[in-house]
Amino acid sequence: MSIDESRESRESRPAPPGAGGPPEGLAEQAAALADGQVTSAALVRRCLDRIAASAPTVNAFRLLRADAAEAEAADADRRLAAGERLPLLGVPVAVKDDMDVAGEPTAFGCAGEFPAKAADAEVVRRLRAAGAIVVGKTNACELGQWPFTEGPAFGDTRNPWHLDHTPGGSSGGSAAAVAAGLVPAALGTDGAGSVRIPAAWTHLVGVKPRRGTLSTWPDPESFQGITGIGPLTRTVEDAALLLDAASGSHPGDLHRPPPLAAREAVRRDPGRLRVALSWKPPFTATATPLHPDVRRAVTAVARTLAGLGHSVEEADPDYGLIGLAFVPRATAGVREWAARVPDPALLDRRTRGAARMGRLLGGAALRRARAAEPRQRRRIGALFGRYDVLLTPTTATPPLRIGALAGLDGRRTDQAMIAACPYAWPWNVLGWPAVNVPAGFTAGGLPLGAQLLGPGDGDARLLSLTAQLQDALRWHERRPATEAAGGAA
User: Fold this and answer.
1) Of 177, 157, 193, which Cα lies nearest the Cα of 402?
2) CB 266 within 8 A of CB 466
3) CB 227 within 8 A of CB 332
4) Where in the sequence numbering do the catalytic residues fall?
5) pLDDT of residue 309
6) Alpha carbon distances (Å) from 420 to 20, 198, 289, 294, 452
7) With a cut of 70, which residues of the chain have pLDDT below it?
8) What is the DSSP letter of 477?
9) Contacts (Cβ under 8 Å, ≥6 apart) of 340
10) How many other C-beta atoms can be found within 10 angstroms of the C-beta atom of residue 70?
11) CA 395, CA 148: separation in Å to the nearest integer?
């Protein structure tokens, strides 16, 4: 792509989903397949062609299952013709490179030769049981540590809205794949905002459900319980469909919350809610100035909520020193994952430093961090005695430029990361649900997001409110007009 073409790709235009062309959304594709309007073979081939066309620019995928996906699509078409119906039968989707897919390696952004996995992760098994076809695994930064998706193992994944900016991380490949129209939906993982941050920076709905809603098996929990799995989609209806298809527990899971009826929730009126608007991030000992475009965008979301009849007022949760509980759990998770890497010498020096920190904090400090969670829930949860939902920015800044954090040492990377993304990670410590909603754009066309946060049992309310906001803001009608989308725009 030339420089002039790259500039043109930064423009956007309205494009209602499914208008005048093949179905683009997850729910649309599932319905079209069930009605016989399109074949799975055609949808999968279109996905594969778009992924190939976008590889030199967006670079969203670590690996493709092209032959397997086409064979599975042919089988899905036979089953559909025979009258079989499943929620996602024949629909192509993608999963992040930290989820096991039978016959494929799980490298989680790392360099080296990884063995093929013998079995699907539970969440992948459930997707396939619902009929979905996994076309490939998407790029992720090394062990999910950073809000960008770049690395020597796979190169730079770029933002379809602005190819010189990151889509975020660590689920940046999944976000870029959906934003560019390569797949209708994808799963990511969120350990410190890693679904919500890329969703904010690519104009998507990104859901982090309550801990355990989507199984992390073959791990009983992921990153000491702070990491969960969630969908990245253009619409909340698509997110709900993917959630319902993929959710459920494995007998070995440590966290097994009640089932979530996500599709029912998005069809339900949320009622009149009390919304707390907070600009205050938790204490991190790092300066976290809020970009004026982010403040403007989140303020506009708050005004929309007020216009819908909700009560909105400024109020801050009492975060305390929750960061003291996050760091031992996060670095212990890095240490555990780093031990699985075939050649640790290939790991980024920042990863090796985090793993060393995880070893140092892996004893009493980690036990104290885990034991503190009930107190933290009570302290922060006191806000929900007065309010139903907390609204905050998802990030403090617009998307970073590609390479902005490359070459920094661990300390400076952490400082830059905290400055850009100080709002998301406390909800990972708590294990509570959160949703990124698209909140508009900077003057230069970079996507921005707002975060809807709830208590432990707040998933359904957040999804209902997101659906109401989507009806008002119509964010799904705006897409990146980029050649990297392979014609999707």
Assistant:
1) 157
2) yes
3) no
4) 96, 170, 194
5) 98
6) 39, 12, 8, 11, 18
7) 1-21, 482-489
8) G
9) none
10) 17
11) 13
